[in-house]
């Protein structure tokens, strides 16, 4: 006997709900679909469609997909709404009461597969009462779960671990493991293994932070940064269309790269590893009019560990002294000295140095790399010759890769022909095809690397280096103290204070430029040997390092 609630209209829709996209594709969904189909077959219902709803059921005002599914079923004259279990329908009392009114008006019939329960117009009040009890229990479960999640995520944020799901480019979540190798619930944020993602972010910050020789206040536009990043091959071809200037702006102003994050409108210090230096990060923020509220004014321009003691290795600290002159004026003397944390200095005599003397000594480094425009042109001409030969060598290598790919296509066709003729059995065919495809993948990878190397990235580095060296003195004289220090960071490394004397090492390729500038006989006369420019090779090798192995005659190893 057919139950009275079936009626003439046997059309049914299965409604599956998961709370988030993270639950898509899990085993429980497949289980629900299988059970709903079996239930409809058992009770003679015609299952028209299964609708998957990915949204939370705890708030009736935010259930757009749930409402849309019911509106579609009403328009399609579908009488039976089949859920796997009650809490898949709703976890709020508003939707529960609204659905009861619809059922009482005989708009549709509700089915719950797991309980094998049906609610229709003539169902007894006790059935609706039990449904209300379950709805209240589900509502309380949802409320308790929300409180638990809020408490856990707040504690995680206070511990410095980012609780959010999505991380900016260059970072990803990694599950922590216990001693037995089992994954813990709490994970950590790490830098991704894909170096191209990290290099893209670093390059975006570097380009924005660059100083221009002709106008120190001018910064590189976001559109220019986008063009340079694409030209340098740091964005995969399939992602160029979605690589917008707005994306670059959001990334450049994202405090996550400064090891901070916001959670529920509160800022927390993060434990994520840093791959954008704090100095570069705040230099970029200044270009957007954002000042650093965390900067310690007491560090001075050379404090904070930037300068170390040559004797003991301790930090050199800023120690200003205020003095009132006889005329009543107040004067601040900006002094620096070693902290002497290791107690290696018996006395502090001769250890204090005035900031002006430090500037005088650092200005000598700028003078060492300063070159004339004519001298810069000679260097650029020499390196251009190296660059062209390197690109020619790369193109020859690329032709070899393309030829190899074509040969592999023919080889795979031959293997298939042998298989069809019975010369090869199925196992032999599969092994040989797998080997050929592995070789093809390697050739493709090598061809992609060659395409990246043939870019003008190295020449851009050369031109930027020469531009800085040509205008070094002019830049230095026009810069503020903070900008001067930024310039020193580009030029110097391992800077130490030996008593009152500054010592440092010049970074490559500026050290090479300094050596070349001090020796005007750096190149051979072109008349005697118009082909080779080997004395410029050290600078070329440093700037064109990615191309060096392909042009041994010009850039020797």
Provide structural commentary:
The chain is an alpha/beta fold and 557 residues long. The protein has four domains: 11-149, Resolvase, N-terminal catalytic domain (Rossmann fold), CATH 3.40.50; 195-295, Alpha-Beta Complex (Hect, E3 ligase catalytic domain fold), CATH 3.90.1750.20; 299-351, no CATH class; 373-550, no CATH class. 47% of the residues lie in helices and 15% in strands. It has helices spanning 27-42, 64-75, 86-89, 93-104, 125-158, 195-209, 222-231, 245-252, 278-287, 355-369, 373-421, 426-453, 457-470, 472-478, 481-491, 510-517, 537-543; strands at residues 11-18, 46-54, 80-83, 109-112, 117-119, 171-177, 183-191, 260-263, 266-269, 308-309, 316-318, 321-324, 330-333, 335-338, 353-354, 492-498, 501-506. A hairpin with a 5-residue loop joins strand 6 (171-177) and strand 7 (183-191). Helix 11 packs antiparallel against helix 12 and helix 11 (373-421) packs antiparallel against helix 13.
Q: Please summarize the sheet with the most strands.
A: 5 strands, mixed
Radius of gyration, taken over Cα atoms and rounded to an integer in Å? 35 Å
User: Per DSSP, what share of the residues sits in E-state strands of 2 or more residues?
Assistant: 15-25%
Q: What count of domains describes the coordinates?
A: 4
Key features of this structure:
alpha/beta; Hect, E3 ligase catalytic domain fold; 557 residues; single chain; 17 helices; 17 strands; Rossmann fold; 4 domains; extended; 5-stranded mixed β-sheet; 3-stranded mixed β-sheet
């Amino acid at each position: 006997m057919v139950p009275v609630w079936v009626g003439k209209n046997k059309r049914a829709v299965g409604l599956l709900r998961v709370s988030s996209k993270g639950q898509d594709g899990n085993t429980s969904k497949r289980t629900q679909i299988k059970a709903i189909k079996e239930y409809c077959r058992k009770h003679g219902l015609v299952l028209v469609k299964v609708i998957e709803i990915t949204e939370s059921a705890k708030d009736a005002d935010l259930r757009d997909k749930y409402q849309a599914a019911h509106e579609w079923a009403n328009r399609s004259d579908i009488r039976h709404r089949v859920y796997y279990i009650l809490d898949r329908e709703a976890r709020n009392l508003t939707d529960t009461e609204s659905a009861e009114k619809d059922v009482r008006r005989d708009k549709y019939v509700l089915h719950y597969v797991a309980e094998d329960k049906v609610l229709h117009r003539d169902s007894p009040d006790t059935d609706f009462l039990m449904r209300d009890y379950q709805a209240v229990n589900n509502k309380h479960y949802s409320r308790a779960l929300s409180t638990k999640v809020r408490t856990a995520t707040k504690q995680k944020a206070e511990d410095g671990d980012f609780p959010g799901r999505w991380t900016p480019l260059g970072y990803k979540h990694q599950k922590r493991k216990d001693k037995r190798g089992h994954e813990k619930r709490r994970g950590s944020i790490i830098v991704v293994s894909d170096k191209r993602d990290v290099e893209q972010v670093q390059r975006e910050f570097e380009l924005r932070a660059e100083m221009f020789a002709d106008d120190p206040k001018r910064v590189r536009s976001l559109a220019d940064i986008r063009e340079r990043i694409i030209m340098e091959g740091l964005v995969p071809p399939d992602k160029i269309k979605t690589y917008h200037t707005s994306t670059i702006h959001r990334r450049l102003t994202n405090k996550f790269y400064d090891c901070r994050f916001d959670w529920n409108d509160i800022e927390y210090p993060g434990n994520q590893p840093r791959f954008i230096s704090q100095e570069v990060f705040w230099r970029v923020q200044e270009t957007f009019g954002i000042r650093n509220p965390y900067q310690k004014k007491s560090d001075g321009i050379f404090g904070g560990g930037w300068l170390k003691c040559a004797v003991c290795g301790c930090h050199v600290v800023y120690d200003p002294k205020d003095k009132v002159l006889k005329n009543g004026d107040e004067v601040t003397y900006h002094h620096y000295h070693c902290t002497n944390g290791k107690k290696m200095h018996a006395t502090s005599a001769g250890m204090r140095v005035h900031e002006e003397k430090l500037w005088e000594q650092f200005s000598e480094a700028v003078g060492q790399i300063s070159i004339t425009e004519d001298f810069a042109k000679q260097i650029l001409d020499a390196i251009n010759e190296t660059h062209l030969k390197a690109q020619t060598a790369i193109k020859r290598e690329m032709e070899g890769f393309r030829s190899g790919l074509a040969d592999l296509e023919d080889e795979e066709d031959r293997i298939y022909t042998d298989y069809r003729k019975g010369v090869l059995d199925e196992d032999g065919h599969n092994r040989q095809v797998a080997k050929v495809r592995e070789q093809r993948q390697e050739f493709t990878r090598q061809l992609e690397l060659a395409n990246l190397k043939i870019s003008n990235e190295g020449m851009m580095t050369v031109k930027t280096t020469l531009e800085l060296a040509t205008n070094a003195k002019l830049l230095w004289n026009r810069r503020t103290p903070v900008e001067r220090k930024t310039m020193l960071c580009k030029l110097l490394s391992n800077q130490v204070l030996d008593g009152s004397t500054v010592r440092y090492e010049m970074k490559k390729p500026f050290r090479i430029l300094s050596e070349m500038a001090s020796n005007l006989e750096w190149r051979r006369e072109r008349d005697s040997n118009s082909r080779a420019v080997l004395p410029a090779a050290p600078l070329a090798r440093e700037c064109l390092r990615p191309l060096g192995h392909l042009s041994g005659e010009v850039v020797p190893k």
